[in-house]
Design a protein that fits this description.
Length: about 600
């Protein structure tokens, strides 16, 4: 009987042959492909979804509290199936996602599907506590049915929409791949069937030559979300937003324990600098998601250009930049393009924040945290020696207002039916105990967690809920939708990234005042574009300025519009759009009401 080593040698030989057969060139070491599970679960498989038919995809999410040390600092983290961040959901356009949520947390929760356009009759699946559902109580379960439209694809994410749980890690990526659309209708004879097989094989080969991965890069507090929020809404904060302690990439980062002046349990050996692989011969796509609570992140990759191809699920005319800024809730997909042909194979991905964005210093926060990008040459603990881009020009940074949709037919901008004016700010009043609360038009939102808006028969505003009714009028251009210009005036000295549920909007204009309030002036209206820019669902309203968004509201329901800075949302900076409420199906309202009947999970 041949010795064991001969079997091993034969298996290695067969592996090498197979790798060569499928064009995995051995100029890149095999170790580059044998990645750690923490990294591989963020690498995507487009060919597994683009080439298949629509399907029902079932996920079981168990939510629990675990003591983890993402950057070496111990904290109770909210996990999904034992993972932080939660599992990456991959789907294709037209799929039905059935997500069974089992709440093993010590508090109620809900999950919002950020950026998803729900079809008519599915407003109740949006996951906004107090608006479209009651939160899922501890020990209970709830099932979401997410119907993905046949034309929506790109980079999305899901996250808790209850209390401050987002800051405790309850989020994950949701990637929707486009279907492989045939250029011609199939014909039933052998030659064309053979041609179709060849075409599909080529398409599969193209997809296999793409390294597609997700990076969730956002700020992180060493304290719990509740502690952070309680501090903010106390007399001690004076209305200053809590400055984060770290920037994490996919739940990881190194941290110097001696930098913190707070009382923490810290072991620097448990933190680590994130490492990601790139492929020399393949197209490298990175999908950036900012799941953070406050900070805008400025991203750049040494010796690489960023070719931006998608923003918030909209495919855009590609733009090449050296740095892009991403606010909480936003997403961008980029192709990284190497500059130069030297032998360097490890580079720094720089995740920079500006202290100007914060109201006070935090010595624990590294203003330029980093991740390592390697072309399969990682050896030991050696760090990259690359340098950042210097003296960037304005056109080398991403200008979000300049982005154009890739589809030329999508550049037709509809006329508006009406205008809504909003003023957003944080105020400290004696009536609220001299504590900061967020306001939209003098109303601070306090969700009713036992009687969500969608379940009611009366949708009128109150002192705790600003509800803006939108209905088709005689002047409406379309009988099935309402086109609205939303002018948001930011009265504060800090920016607000605003997110709209269930719809996307055209960001037409932003203004930031050099001095003064910067509010919109009716007698001096700006010149707005005549062609539609790229649709977004999250956009930054400048400090002491304003923004103009145009929205086509065409899905009946109750849709939240709010600041995605966590303490601003939690303290009330939100408004609800009541869209065509007379057309909301009875079943949708019933589903919202039924969410308040708790079922204890087995």
């Amino acid at each position: 009987m041949p010795p064991a080593w001969k079997y091993a040698a034969t298996l290695i030989f067969l592996l090498v042959v197979l790798l060569y057969r499928f064009n995995l060139k051995l100029r890149t070491p095999l170790s580059a492909f044998l990645v750690h599970e923490d990294i591989s679960r963020f690498q995507l498989s487009p060919s597994s979804h683009t080439l298949r038919s629509e399907a029902i995809r079932i996920y079981n999410f168990t939510l629990e509290e675990e003591v983890l040390s993402p950057n070496g600092v111990q904290k109770t983290v909210f996990t999904i199936n034992g993972l932080y961040p939660g599992p990456t959901i991959e789907a294709r356009s037209g799929d039905l996602l059935v997500v069974n949520v089992y709440n093993r947390l010590s508090e109620a929760t809900s999950l919002h599907w950020h950026g998803i356009r729900h079809p008519v009759g599915h407003n109740s699946q949006d996951g906004a506590s107090g608006v479209t559902q009651c939160p899922i109580q501890p020990g209970s379960n709830f099932t979401y049915h997410i119907h993905l439209s046949s034309d929506q694809y790109g980079t999305f994410w899901y996250h808790s929409h209850q209390s401050t749980q987002l800051a405790d890690g309850l989020f994950g990526a949701l990637i929707i791949h486009p279907p492989d659309r045939l250029a011609e209708e199939s014909r039933f004879h052998q030659d064309e069937l053979r041609s179709e097989r060849i075409r599909r094989h080529r398409r599969a080969t193209e997809l296999s030559n793409v390294l597609d991965q997700v990076m969730l890069i956002g700020d992180w507090y060493h304290r719990s979300g509740k502690e952070v929020s309680e501090w903010y809404q106390s007399l001690r904060s004076h209305g200053n937003e809590p400055v984060p302690d770290a920037i994490l990439n996919n739940g990881q980062q190194a941290f110097n324990c001696s930098q913190s002046i707070a009382q923490i349990v810290c072991d620097s050996r448990q933190g680590r600098t994130p490492v990601f692989n790139l492929h020399l011969q393949h197209k490298n796509i990175i999908r950036f998601i900012n799941p953070g609570s406050l900070a805008e992140i400025h991203l750049s990759l040494d010796s690489h250009l960023l070719r931006v191809v998608e923003a918030d699920g909209t495919q855009i005319q590609p733009v090449v930049v050296k740095e892009l800024s991403i606010a909480p809730g936003q997403r961008y997909a980029v192709e990284v393009i190497r500059v130069g042909n030297d032998q360097t194979c490890e580079f720094w991905l720089r995740q920079r924040v500006d202290y100007e964005d914060f109201k006070y210093p935090n010595v624990a926060l590294d203003l330029e945290s980093k991740s390592i990008m390697t072309y399969g040459c990682r050896r030991g603990s050696r760090l990259p020696r690359t340098h950042s881009w210097s003296a960037l020009k304005a056109d080398e940074r991403l200008d979000p207002l300049s982005l154009q949709p890739l589809d030329r037919l999508a550049r037709l901008l509809p006329l508006t039916d009406n205008v809504v004016m909003m003023y957003v700010t944080t105020m400290i009043r004696t009536a609220t105990g001299n504590k900061p609360f967020g306001y939209v038009n003098q109303t601070t939102w306090k969700p009713n967690l036992t009687n969500p808006v969608l379940a009611r028969s009366d949708f009128a505003s109150s002192s705790k809920e600003l509800i803006v009714p939108l209905d088709v009028s005689n002047t409406s251009i379309s009988p099935a939708s309402v086109v609205l210009d939303i002018i948001v005036n930011n009265l504060e000295d800090g920016p607000h990234p605003f997110h709209l549920h269930g719809h996307h909007f055209w960001p037409l204009y932003t203004y930031k005042a050099a001095m003064g309030a910067g509010s919109y002036k009716w007698d001096q209206p700006p010149t707005l574009p005549t062609a539609a820019p790229a649709l977004r669902d999250t956009f930054v309203i400048p400090a002491k300025g304003h923004a103009i968004f145009r929205v086509r509201f065409d899905t009946p329901g109750m849709w939240l519009f709010h600041c995605h800075v966590l303490v601003h949302l939690h303290s009330g900076m939100a408004v609800i759009f009541d869209v065509l409420s007379d057309r909301i199906p009875i079943e949708d309202r019933k589903n919202a009401a039924d969410s308040c009947s708790y079922v204890v999970a087995p």
